[in-house]
Design goal:
The complex is a heterodimer of chains A (208) and B (86). Chain A has 208 residues and is of the alpha/beta class. Chain A has 2 domains: 3-73; 76-207. Chain A is built from 8 helices and 6 strands. A 6-stranded mixed sheet of chain A has the order 2-1-3-4-5-6. The termini of chain A are far apart. In chain B, helix 1 runs antiparallel to helix 2 (28-53). Chain B has one domain (2-85). Classes of the chains: A alpha/beta (208), B mainly alpha (86). Chain A binds chain B through residues 2-4, 7-8, 11, 14-15, 18, 26-27, 29-31, 33-34, 37-38, 40-41, 44-45, 49-50, 52-53, 56-57, 60-61, 64-65, 68-69, 72, 117, 119, and chain B through 5, 8-9, 12, 15-16, 18-19, 22-23, 28, 31-32, 34-35, 38-39, 42-43, 45-46, 49, 57-58, 60-62, 64-65, 68-69, 71-73, 75-76, 79-80, 82-83, 86.
Chain lengths: 208, 86
């Protein structure tokens, strides 16, 4: 057998090791495509062009595309927000400075390490938002807290011109999943939201 | 004959470059570029082997893999682009 066959065959475990040790799911999918191409080459060189054709058509084309759709739809953190908050953020000239955008940016930073992406789903009123959380349509909801009441509770009679670091966070993020609450509680650094966890089984029990 | 063998060796070494790039890089689009590079290189290597062995059936398989690899690359790129938009 020719010399180059051994060299080409040695590429296959190399690509397979790269695939196994890759942690990012999307990178792993692309490397799976490379593994498929190299596998097709090896099968052809070893004298099985029919197997190589099947590997290229099914193993690389179909499997990678289906897995990309599956990973894209499963690795997602759905956050329910109110329509009015979202339109406020969109109408704003510099959208990065709105509090909701800051909260979403903070969540994006936290969940980037877990390869989750944050998807915003808008609802028209607060009842629909709460119902969506209970019906498991969203993983968490982010709504504007009652700022005025909280401020009154802290310092009654103080006008709105108080120092910004003394006022409470304008948003309140509620999640129904314990693991998400633990992650956000330990890593989310945004001062624009306060976190709470609601147990879905014993609905009504709120841990702040 | 010897020249084609040497060319095949050089292509195997060249195939290691995009593999290293895919292992090292963090950007998903750089990894996609490596995938495109590897896919084209392996298809051309299959064509070279078919010429080396004077085997037309292997050559036909190489041509089909070359064209299908581009189609799969475009599908995957569209899904990843939708991911970046949302």
């Amino acid at each position: 057998m020719d010399n180059y066959v051994y060299m080409i065959t040695a590429l296959l475990p190399l690509a397979a090791a790269m695939l196994v040790f890759q942690v990012n799911p999307y990178h792993a999918l692309v490397i799976r495509g490379m593994l498929g191409a190299i596998a097709a080459l090896v099968y052809t060189v070893l004298g099985a062009p029919d197997v190589a054709l099947t590997e290229a058509l099914v193993g690389t084309l179909l499997a990678v595309t289906l897995y990309a759709v599956a990973v894209r739809s499963s690795l997602v953190f759905r956050l329910g927000v109110l329509q009015e908050d979202l339109s406020d953020a969109q109408d704003h000239i510099a959208p990065d400075v709105t509090p909701l955008q800051q909260v979403v940016n903070g969540l994006n930073t936290v969940f980037k390490d877990y390869h989750l992406r944050v998807e915003l789903i808008s609802y028209f009123d607060r009842d629909a938002l709460q119902q969506a959380l209970m019906n498991k349509e969203v993983h968490a909801i982010c709504e504007r807290g009652s700022v005025v009441e909280a401020r009154e509770a802290i310092a009654p009679g103080v006008p709105d011109s108080s120092a910004p670091d003394s006022c409470p966070p304008p948003y309140r993020t509620t999640t129904r999943l314990r693991r998400l609450y633990d992650i956000m509680n330990s890593e989310l650094l945004s001062s624009k939201t306060q976190l709470s966890y609601i147990d879905h089984a014993a609905a009504g029990e709120v841990v702040s | 004959m010897s020249f084609l063998n040497l060319a095949l060796m050089a292509m195997i070494v060249a195939l290691l470059i995009p593999l290293y790039e895919a292992w090292r890089d963090e950007d998903i689009w750089q990894t996609m570029l490596s995938l495109s590079s590897v896919s084209s290189k392996t298809a051309v290597m299959i064509l070279l082997v078919s010429v080396l062995r004077d085997d037309w059936m292997v050559g036909v398989a190489g041509v089909i893999i070359l064209s299908v690899g581009n189609a799969g690359f475009m599908l995957l790129a569209h899904i990843l682009k939708r991911l970046g938009d949302s």
